[in-house]
């Protein structure tokens, strides 16, 4: 089994493009007056804001520039996750299962 140190190596091994994006999750001081950070409700219900102007392929190790550019163009049309969707993505990547608490 190959050891990968960065995701672009994994993409190259699979013969696919490494396209990346970064999202901003807004934090705010706890409204109960506690000096701790909580997730700002603005992070839910709408796609999170991107930290980039467009998806990036700068670390893609492919040798197919035209195909890579076309993939970036397609990824521009894929909605970024909202906070809830990001939670599930993080849980899956870290090996957790998310269960909604009863209220």
Provide tags for this entry.
two-stranded antiparallel sheet, 103 residues, alpha+beta
Description:
The chain contains 3 helices and 4 strands; from the N terminus they run αββββαα. A two-stranded antiparallel ribbon has the order 1-4. A two-stranded antiparallel ribbon has the order 2-3. It has helices at 7-14, 65-76, 83-94; strands at 23-24, 27-29, 37-39, 49-50. 31% of the residues lie in helices and 10% in strands. Strand 2 and strand 3 (37-39) form a beta hairpin. It has one domain. With 103 residues, the protein is of the alpha+beta class.
- Compute the number of structural domains: 1
The rounded distance between the terminal residues' Cα atoms is 45 Å
Secondary-structure-derived class: alpha+beta
How much helicity do the residues have? 25-40%
| DSSP summary: helix tally | 3
Overall mean pLDDT stands at 93
The biggest sheet, with number of strands, parallel, antiparallel or mixed sense and barrel status, is: 2 strands, antiparallel
- Total strands: 4
Query: Going across the major beta sheet, what is the strand order?
Result: 1-4
Radius of gyration: 17 Å
Oligomerization status of the protein chains: single chain
Could you name the ranges where pLDDT drops below 50 across 5 or more consecutive residues? none
H/E element order? HEEEEHH
């Amino acid at each position: 089994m190959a050891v990968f140190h960065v995701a672009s190596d994994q993409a190259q091994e699979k013969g696919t493009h490494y396209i990346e994006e970064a999202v901003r999750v807004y934090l705010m001081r706890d409204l109960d007056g506690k000096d701790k950070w909580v997730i700002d409700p603005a992070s839910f219900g709408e796609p999170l804001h991107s930290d980039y102007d467009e998806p990036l392929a700068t670390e893609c190790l492919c040798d197919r520039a035209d195909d890579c550019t076309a993939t970036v163009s397609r990824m521009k049309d894929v909605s970024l996750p909202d906070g809830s969707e990001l939670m599930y993505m993080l849980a899956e990547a870290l090996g957790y299962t998310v269960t909604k608490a009863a209220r």
